[in-house]
Amino acid sequence: MIQIIKTLLFSGLTIFITISLIQFPDQALEASIRGLNLWWEVVFPSLLPFFITAELLLAFGVVNFIGVLFEPIMRPLFNIPGVGSFGWMMGMASGYPTGAKIAARLREENQLTQVEAERLVAFTNNSSPLFIFGAISVGFFHDASLGILIAVCHYTSNAIVGVAMRFHGRNRKGIKLEKQKRVSLTTAFKAMHRTRLKDKRPFGEILGDAVLNSIKTLVMVGGFITLFSVLIKLLFLVGVTPAIAELIQGILSLFSLPIEFALPFLSGLFEITIGANMITQITTDSLLPQLILVSFILGFNGFSVQAQVASILAKTDIRFLPYFFARLLHGSIASILTIILFKPLYLDKETSQTSNMPGFQESDYNVWTNIFNLIAENGALFTFFFLGIGITILYRRNIKKQ
C-alpha cells in the first residue's frame, strides 16, 4: 500500500511540474536561469577547491592522520571516530553539502559505521563563513557586524546538535565501542602512510579522479538548485505557496513574529538564498524577527540542500531521516540562540563601536566581502574552465580504453 501511495505521489508531482512548465514557460525559464547563474557564478567556484582538496587528502591518508590526533576529542563529544573531525572542519569551511560528501566517502571506505556516518552528517552540513559574512550579512542585510551574531548562533547550535546526536543509535545491536588508544604523532603518521600505500593509483590518476568526482557532485548540486528555483516559482504561480503561507502565518503569530514574513519564510524552507533575500527586503521596527527566521532557515538547510544531501547519501546505507531531524533541531536551537545573543553580540557591540575592538576590525569583514565579490565576478570563467578540464580528462580516458 505504501509503495502504491509513493507511486501516485511521485507520478502526480511529475505531471504537475510538466503541466506547470507548459502553462508558464517564460516564468519557468527565468527561474531556471536565476538558479543556473547562482550555481556557476558562486556555488561551483566556491565549492570545487574544497571538494578536490578533500578527495586528495583522503587519497593520501592525511584524513587518517587527522583522525588519529582528534580521536580523544571527537569520541567523547560526538561519539564518532577522529576522522570525523575532517568532515566537521571542511563542512564549516566550505558549507553544504561538503559534510555529506565527506561522510559518504568515509562510509564507503569503512572508516565509519552506518550509525557513526549518520551522526557525522547530522552536524557537518552548515553554511560557510563566506555565505554568512559575504551573502547574508553584507549582501542582504547590508550590515557587516551582523555576521558575528549569525555565525556564532549558527556554528554553536550546530555543535550542540552534534553533541545531542551522539546518542543516536547508541542502543543498536552490533555496534562495538573501541578502546581509547594512546595518541602520538608517530601513530598518526603510520596510519597516514599505510593509507597512502593501499592506494595503488598513480598521482595523475588520483588527481584526475579527484577533479572528476568533484565536478560530478557539483553538476548534481547545480541541477537541484535549478530545479528548486523553478519549483518555487511554479508553486507560487499556481497558488500553492500563498495557500501554505496562510497556515505559516498562524505559526508565526504564536511566536509573536510578523505575519508578513510567512511567504519569504516558506520560500526559505525551499531555498535558503531566495528566502533570506526576501526576508531582508521586508522593513520592520527591529532586526530581531528577520534574524530569527534567517537563523532557522540557515540551520534547516532548505529542501534544495536536503535534496542534494539525500542524493549523495543514496549511494550508501546512510539514512536520511536522522539528518532531517537534526536540521529541525539545528534551526530551532539557532533561533533560540539568536534571541539570547542578539543584545550582547549586536546591540551592545553597536553602542561600543565594535569596529574598534581587537579581532573585530572592519577589514576582517571586508575580506569576506571581497572574496564573495571576486567569486561572483569571475565565477563563470572558473566554472567553464574546470568543466573543460573535466571533459578533457573523460575524453582522454575514453580514448585509452578503445
Automatic annotation (TrEMBL):
Residue ranges of every copy of the Nucleoside transporter/FeoB GTPase Gate domain listed in the record: 42-139, 219-314
Keywords: Membrane, Transmembrane, Transmembrane helix
Transmembrane residue ranges: 47-70, 261-279, 291-313, 325-347, 367-395
UniProt superkingdom: Bacteria
Matching InterPro entries: Gate_dom, Spore_IM_YlbJ
NCBIfam families per record: spore_ylbJ
Entry protein name: Sporulation integral membrane protein YlbJ
Species: Oceanobacillus zhaokaii
